[in-house]
Design a protein that fits this description.
This protein has 126 residues and is mostly helical. It has one domain (10-42, 51-124). Helix content is 76%, strand content 0%. The chain has 5 helices and no strands. It has helices at 10-38, 41-44, 54-89, 93-106, 108-120. The chain is elongated and about 60 Å long.
Length: 126
């Protein structure tokens, strides 16, 4: 005897919330990258001991910040978007839940509903 699970809109709504939050993360990262390239170095390096290293230390710091920013942008945008796609398709509940957890870390307003809806809709996933 085959049991049928009632299909609700919960995974779809959770997936849309995850995709929107992931898109916001991508846009925020792009904004930070643009701002980082257009703000003069003299405005970002405070006067004091850092000046003795000059622009060279700023370029190393810039590279480290940009590299870390790229890693976090990948985590906070790719995982939610993938999780959102799988939530809409009702496949791979673990990945959909992971995306919802990452969204909750990045954006509470969108993340908490996405997390709750994904968790409640576990039976609807393959």
């Amino acid at each position: 005897m085959e049991s049928t699970v009632k299909r609700t809109a919960m995974p779809t709504v959770a997936g849309i919330l995850e995709i929107v939050a992931g898109t916001f993360s991508i846009l925020a990262f792009i904004g930070v990258m643009i701002a980082f390239f257009f703000i003069p170095a003299s405005m970002t390096v405070s006067p004091g001991p850092a000046e003795e290293f000059g622009l060279w230390s700023f370029s190393i710091l810039s590279g480290v910040v940009l590299a870390l920013g790229a890693v976090f942008a990948l985590i906070f945008s790719v995982l939610p978007i993938l999780g959102g796609v799988y939530a809409i398709q009702r496949k791979k509940w673990g990945l959909a839940l992971t995306g919802a957890i990452v969204v909750t870390i990045a954006n509470l307003l969108l993340g908490i509903p996405a997390l709750i809806l994904t968790a409640l809709a576990k039976d609807e996933f393959e």
